[in-house]
Amino acid sequence: MAMLRGAVAAARRCGPGPGTGKAGAPRRYSAAERRQWVPPAGRDSGIVAYNSRSRSKEPLVLGTEGVATWYSCGPTVYDRAHLGHASSYVRFDIIRRIMTRFFGIEVIMVMGITDIDDKIIKRANEMNISPLALARIYEDDFKQDMAALKVLPPTVYMRVTDNIPHIISFIKTIIACGQAYATSQGNVYFDVKSLGKRYGVLTTICPDTQDEAVDADKRHGKDFALWKAAKPQELSWTSPWGKGRPGWHIECSTISSAVFGKQLDIHTGGIDLAFPHHENEIAQCEVYHQCEQWGNYFLHSGHLHVKGSQEKMSKSLKNYVSIKDFLKKFSSDQFRMFCLRSRYSSAVEFSDESMEDAKHLHQAISSFIRDANAYIKGQLVCDPVREDILWERLANTKVTVKAAFADDFDTSRAVAAIMDLIHHGNRQLKAVTKDAGSPRSSVVYGSIISYIEGFFNALGMSFGERQVALGGDNSAVLSNVMDELVKFRAKVRHYALALPEAAGTVPLEGATAAKGPEQEQKEKRQQLMQERKPLLEACDSLRGDLAAFGIHIKQEMPNVLRLQENQKGGPPVHHISGCFLHDCIQVL
Ligand SMILES: Nc1ncnc2c1ncn2[C@@H]1O[C@H](COP(=O)(O)OP(=O)(O)OP(=O)(O)O)[C@@H](O)[C@H]1O
Ligand SMILES: [Zn+2]
């Protein structure tokens, strides 16, 4: 009785069904036939985003000022996640962070977890465990991978199997609206033709053609399952149509609607989800909510391909690298750098070379921050700095970064602007051999590194000394150990290079100041050089070994060393470029 009441209520909410289309060859809507996207009411966020619904860039208008409701299609949890998944979730994580940190938008994100489907059932049978046990294992695994990649968790994760009653009720409403039908075999299908031209808003695919083989109990090839009758021994739930489980698309429609109702600002997923998944989600929700436009902005991430392949990285194609294996070789920051270098919507090619490029870029930034820090601390002596140029560059960079992010989250342009700033900062940070006592420009360098660190920090990365603070006790200890090691090397090298006439400035045990004739002096020098050669070789070899771990020691000029140590009484001039936490941890 309750079910009937629900159906009657739903029928009242439903308007008359649109007419069915005519039969013919498969085709897409023409521009004139296509349903137009309507800009939503609300507040302009200041961002322009490419919207798959309108196939163009649109001002991102949010229903509630400063708040974005966002549904993200989550993983199907039946195996380890790979770099294709990583690229999609990291790229959207970057967008989320840009919205929050650069535009002050609070993001409320819901992610659905598909924890029951054909692939899960098949794999569970192979492993002789229950589908839900398998799904829990890989759900945890996915969450660990996301944490390792520093992807912020959604506001809530929602599992399909925790939402079966909502899903059944959603399907009942669609049936009551006359846009879905149950079959004698216990399946329920969405009647795509009944939507007429209202179907196909994302992909412009016309439903009025019979272009594929029709399953026995479907009316039309494009009809899709809302509920699937259980096969014998299969995990199932009781429903008005018999025992079964939900279809794929209905999960996301239901979960999103359960949290946000019909107000959904942003919907995201990989480009492969646009059809049929998102197309079908839209059809279901627009019937359920009886609205003209469910999901105002659809953002799709481009695929990650293996180099030289047209195919996306995928479990079924067995051409994948798992996130765990990848993180044995590269850091999550290096992967984020790889992602930042292209726009989220473009396809991206993965290879060792592209990762090496990202790694070098990361090292260059680290290196600049280290150098600028050393300069501020007075450990790097430079010619006078043209501060006016640097202040201007910094101001321009801030403007360019904001404009790039506002233009469909153009991370590659923003990173290019940062690299340009670093280039100009580096040009003036050239070590000189003599300290002419010129005024130092610590404040401008402090401002630049503070902006750059803040920029990357906002995007989920960390550089330089701040990383040590974030990394906990071990990394702080390790950083100090590195400092001591580099200081020790500098002292040994300094001693090895000290010439007899300078022996008085660096006393050598057992050595006396050379005062004899010139020949005696020369011989003494040669002998000392010979004796100390192994020390210099050891210093060089340590420098080379550390470079292999991404820790670069800049070669100091001996007379600058002497000047600093002996005239000023300060610490030896040294700094490490490119020594960053992750690499240090890998050393351990
Ligand atoms: N190679 C890839 N590049 C970019 N995004 C991807 C790639 N593979 C999967 N995704 C995205 O990851 C998200 C989760 O995908 P899902 O769990 O459905 O995996 P899948 O597409 O079935 O993976 P596979 O094809 O490897 O089985 C989706 O948004 C999907 O578009
Ligand atoms: Zn989905």
From TrEMBL:
Residues 65-359 form the tRNA synthetases class I catalytic domain. InterPro entries: Cys-tRNA-ligase (IPR015803), Cys-tRNA/MSH_ligase (IPR024909), Rossmann-like_a/b/a_fold (IPR014729), tRNA-synt_1_cat_dom (IPR032678), tRNAsynth_Ia_anticodon-bd (IPR009080). Keywords: Aminoacyl-tRNA synthetase, ATP-binding, Ligase, Metal-binding, Nucleotide-binding, Protein biosynthesis, Zinc. GO terms for molecular function: ATP binding; cysteine-tRNA ligase activity; metal ion binding. GO terms for cellular component: cytoplasm. Its cofactor is Zn(2+). Its EC number is 6.1.1.16. It is an enzyme of class 6 (ligase). It catalyses: tRNA(Cys) + L-cysteine + ATP = L-cysteinyl-tRNA(Cys) + AMP + diphosphate; S-sulfanyl-L-cysteine + L-cysteine = S-disulfanyl-L-cysteine + L-alanine; S-disulfanyl-L-cysteine + tRNA(Cys) + ATP = (S)-disulfanyl-L-cysteinyl-tRNA(Cys) + AMP + diphosphate; 2 L-cysteine = S-sulfanyl-L-cysteine + L-alanine. GO terms for biological process: cysteinyl-tRNA aminoacylation. NCBIfam families: cysS. Belongs to the class-I aminoacyl-tRNA synthetase family. Mitochondrial cysteine-specific aminoacyl-tRNA synthetase that catalyzes the ATP-dependent ligation of cysteine to tRNA(Cys). This is cysteine--tRNA ligase. It comes from Falco tinnunculus. The lineage of its organism: Eukaryota, Metazoa, Chordata, Craniata, Vertebrata.
